[in-house]
Amino acid sequence: MEITSELFRKAYEQMSDAVFLLQGKSEIITSNPAANRLLDQYEVNLDDFCTFCNGYTSNFEERTCLGCSLRKRVDNESFQLFLNLKVGKNIPFSASYTLIDEKAGISVLILRNLTQQQHTEQLLKQKTMTEYVINAQENERKRLSRELHDGLAQGLFSTLIELRKIKYMTKKEDYESSLSEMDSMLATTLEDIRNMAIELRPSSLDDLGIFAALKAYFKRYEQLFGIHVVFVSELYGTRFPASVETMLYRVTQEALTNAAKYADVGEIEVYLFKTKQSIVLEINDQGIGFSPDHFTAQGSGLGLLNMKERVELLNGDFELRSEPQQGTKVLVRIPIEPKGGRTT
Ligand SMILES: Nc1ncnc2c1ncn2[C@@H]1O[C@H](COP(=O)(O)OP(=O)(O)OP(=O)(O)O)[C@@H](O)[C@H]1O
Ligand SMILES: [Mg+2]
């Protein structure tokens, strides 16, 4: 017991967390060296933290004073708040308040500096994001390389063989049939190159905006998959920032490709509209659906993740609703910033 309390005393003195033993609302009975250093460096007044702290983090906001856990002296709950250094900066702390003797009104307040922890979290998040972007780029390159090799290069190679054969032809009919064969092979290859260029980045997206680009995409989609697209939008001619238009286009493309691959439907509905606060994109199919909480992706499984990332990068909300046999709905909401802001 002696040894244990001696060890606890050492821990109390050497730890980097600031520990205050308080009586009543704010009288400090004792504090450890880290707490004394904190009082030296920060503008702290235990009588009224409120004057000095810069808000705490609730479930709704990063910095708020509404229902402050410190003011309420919420027992045994840790929360994040921000303290002012005497030299100016705001530093994030985690705080916890525990009532240890209710009768005598004694409690312990522990404050831990979160700067390093938040820095590490940020680095990790950045690293994951970079890895994700690199992976996505690599996958796209693989797909392009396959398409160049298996599609375009094969088409040109066949035409080349046909061309070489001509040298040895003696009959006019053979010669003419070969020429017409080459004509149609080159026309197909040319069409493939055009389609690939459009798929990479349709020029209509830059020149005419999201409405026109989607219209053109739906037309190609209907021809390719035989699935009818019902497009409802009043945004003809409305322009949004390039990042928003690209996101709307890519999300629609992925959702429609998924529907063609998995949903087994003959029709898809796409709604694109603007409210006062946001741009909304909704894509519905009444197909076979799936269970978003437990499913095994049938392809590489990057599509849904990609959509979510793209939307969240623009501070938007991404929602996927689906159930087996109940169809699938993809819902995207992008906030419109006040005039002069990002998305208006
Ligand atoms: N509209 C849909 N109807 C039915 N199932 C769907 C639909 N959309 C997605 N799914 C299911 O969700 C899975 C994950 O979709 P996701 O787009 O993430 O990956 P993927 O299409 O399998 O591969 P990738 O998009 O990377 O080529 C799909 O494999 C499919 O099982
Ligand atoms: Mg997909």
UniProtKB/TrEMBL annotation:
Protein location: Cytoplasm
Broad class of the protein's primary localization: cytoplasm
Co-factor note (free text): Binds 1 [4Fe-4S] cluster.
Assigned GO CC terms: cytoplasm; membrane
PROSITE patterns the record matches: HIS_KIN
Stored Pfam families: HATPase_c, HisKA_3
Co-factor(s): [4Fe-4S] cluster
PTMs per UniProt: Autophosphorylated.
SUPFAM superfamilies found in the cross-reference section: ATPase domain of HSP90 chaperone/DNA topoisomerase II/histidine kinase
UniProt superkingdom: Bacteria
Molecular function, one GO term: phosphorelay sensor kinase activity
Histidine kinase domain mapped to chain residues: 248-338
Modified residues (Phosphohistidine): 149
Binding site for [4Fe-4S] cluster: 50, 53, 65, 68
Catalytic activity: ATP + protein L-histidine = ADP + protein N-phospho-L-histidine
PANTHER family to which the protein is assigned, alphabetical: NITRATE/NITRITE SENSOR PROTEIN NARX-RELATED, NITRATE_NITRITE SENSOR PROTEIN NARQ
Function statement: Member of the two-component regulatory system NreB/NreC involved in the control of dissimilatory nitrate/nitrite reduction in response to oxygen. NreB functions as a direct oxygen sensor histidine kinase which is autophosphorylated, in the absence of oxygen, probably at the conserved histidine residue, and transfers its phosphate group probably to a conserved aspartate residue of NreC. NreB/NreC activates the expression of the nitrate (narGHJI) and nitrite (nir) reductase operons, as well as the putative nitrate transporter gene narT.
Name this polypeptide is given: Sensor histidine kinase
Organism name: Listeria grandensis FSL F6-0971
